[in-house]
Amino acid sequence: MTPEGLALLLADEQLVAVDKPAGLLSVPGRGPERADCAASRVQAAYADALIVHRLDMATPGVLVFGRGAAAQRALSVAFAERRVDKRYIAV
Question: What is the pTM of this model?
Fold first, then answer.
């Protein structure tokens, strides 16, 4: 199932990865006008998806969600311990 307005890159039993466009919040902001975000769109398609990291609103890129609390914790630890390779490209 593809989350509304997001390119689904991967979805399996452990994680969901989507391509977040610039201009979309990663998580809800303050106030009802900032409720639309990548997390709510992914959770509408994958109810157990929990965000692992964030990108600034203006930054496009890959967002990773753990499928359930255990997967989110494992992925969060991998990010914190820098076991995840990240690449930033400035245009």
Answer: 0.91
